[in-house]
Amino acid sequence: MKFWAKLCLSVIIMISIILSVSRYIVVRQNFLNSIKSSSNQNENKHHLERYYLEKNIISKIQLGEEIENESIVEYIKSIYSYMNEDLEKVAIYTDNKEMMYSNFEQIDNFDIEKLFNKEVDQYYLRKIGSNHYMVFSSYWSINSNNMYIVTIYNITPIYDERTRQMKEIMFADIIIISVSSVFIFIFSKVLTRPIEELNDASKKISFGKFNERVNIKSNDEIGELANSFNVMAEEIENKINSLSLSIKKKDNFITGFSHEIKTPMTAIIGYADLLRLKKCDEEITTKSLNYIYSEAKRLEELSYKLLALMDISESVIELKNIKINEFIKKMAKKIVLKNIRLQLDIEPALVKADHNLLEVVIRNLVQNAKKAEPKDNCIYIVGKLLENKYRISVIDLGRGIPKEHIERVTDDFYMVDKSRSRENGGTGIGLSLCKKILELHNSKIYIESEVNRGTKVYFELEVINGNKKIY
Q: Which of 135, 316, 417, 442 makes the best surface tag, with the fewest CB within 10 Å?
């Protein structure tokens, strides 16, 4: 069963129960009040009638008439013979509980003995057939004549009125519940529409439509749920996109890795096979061995960088304080560049970095600058202290990078000019390695370049001033 149907049915049942109980209580209270009022009225009437009989009989005794039970019965019979039979009935019983007179044919259906009490007057209610009766009894003693007088009042109209009220209320309740059911149905559909929208959106997301969102404008709990759902959907979409991108990068990495290995391996196998199967002259042999050696060195460099890349991806580094000017000067002495000189312009500062990883970054940037074939045969390393960071730049005046390639040069195995890069021993993962190392330093790699005018690659490190960071 749908939630809106459950809500609709629950409210209708609740309204029905409340109406039924409240109406029953009202009708019952009215009925009890009517019974009580009728009881008081008939009790007073019973006492007045007994008093009237006593007064008349006593007046006859005072006139000298002899009063016996039979004469009393005849006198009562004559009095009640003029009364409306539907309104009131009477019965007379002796002190021994034997009936002397009754003008009510169904008197035997009453449990009269329950009413006989000499001390107090008694009354009860009794239903006979379709009629309801109120029966009163009192003990009467006059001129040594003892008897019980029983008066019977028909109170069927009170019960009929209760039945009439119940029927009218039931009819009114049916109309009220029918009309309210229509409104409850409409309100239930309106109130549960946002939930249905959330349900539809979640189904679409489960089928892969991760950009699905709900548009529910509300300040209640459903509105908060909708906002939370949209946030969750956005996080899922981002995670899925991130996973897809990661898978794509891995596929590209494997494709690039396979291609990068295949090229030198083909050359190595080809020249080795040539030397194995043929007796070559000294020039061909030297040329073949040089190809084998250069391609093997290229494979060696590729394997080192791949190992470094995998190690970087899984490591957590501890950043230490480094005197950057001393560090770069010492490192520059170890870098050997044929026909290229390093020009340093380093401001002193204390930065936070990993010593070995920072050297890997700068060495790779210098090697890339060398492959750009700078026109002045010079590579510039510049260190500048900024407001709250320290910027290290590696600059060359080489051939530059086309704008459409700048965003992708940090991807694994990406090379702008593959043939030229391979000639220079490039692998296409140097900048990718730098990017990952700098991410561990909470930094980024920035590239500014113009074709045939040169390239500037820089990054920024955290600065330490004594024991305080400079902001």
A: 316
The CATH number of the domain where 401 resides is what? 3.30.565.10
Which residues fall within 8 angstroms of residue 325, CB to CB, at 6 or more apart?
Answer: 346, 347, 348, 349, 383
Phi, psi for 350 (deg, rounded to 5) = -110, 115
Burial class (CB in 10 A: 0-12, 13-18, 19+), 430: buried
- Please report how many Cα atoms fall inside a 13 Å half-sphere around the Cα of residue 126, on the Cβ side: 17
Residues 158, 270 within the same domain: no
Amino acid code (one letter) for 190: V
Joined tokens for residue 291: 């190809």
Domain boundary among 250, 284, 314: 314
CA distance 191 to 196: 10
Cα torsion 366, 372, 375, 377: sign: positive
CA 34 to chain centre: 56
Rounded to 5 degrees, φ, ψ at 395 are -125, 140
Residue 152 belongs to domain spanning? 3-163
Measured from the Cβ of residue 296, the count of other Cβ atoms closer than 10 Å reads 14
- Token pair for residue 1? 């069963």
Query: From CA 349, how far away is CA 392, in angstroms rounded?
Result: 11
pLDDT at 211: 81
Spatial separation of the C-alpha atoms in residues 202 and 70, rounded to whole Å = 96
For residues 52 and 157, give the distance between their C-alpha atoms in angstroms, rounded to a whole number. Answer: 27
Assess whether 87 and 156 both reside in one domain.
Answer: yes
Q: What are phi and psi of 6, to 5 degrees?
A: -60, -45
Are 462 and 352 spatial neighbours (Cβ–Cβ below 8 Å)? yes
Q: Say yes or no: 371 and 247 in one domain.
A: no
Query: Strands 446-450, 99-102: parallel, antiparallel or unpaired by DSSP?
Result: unpaired
The residue whose two tokens read 């900048």 is 431
Name residue, tokens 């300040």.
Answer: 219
Non-local (6+) Cβ contacts of 374 within 8 A are: 340, 396, 397, 398, 454
447-to-6, 365, 402, 408 alpha-carbon distances in Å = 62, 11, 11, 11
For the segment 248-301, what is each residue's pLDDT rounded down to a tens digit? Answer: 767 766 665 565 567 678 878 888 888 888 888 888 888 888 888 877 876 776
Residues 54, 60: Cα–Cα separation, whole Å: 10
User: CB neighbours of 191 closer than 8 A, spacing ≥ 6?
Assistant: 4, 7
Helices vs strands, H then E, count in the chain: 10, 13
The reported pTM is: 0.46
Q: In what order do the strands lie in the sheet with 99-102?
A: 99-102, 88-94, 145-154, 131-142, 122-128
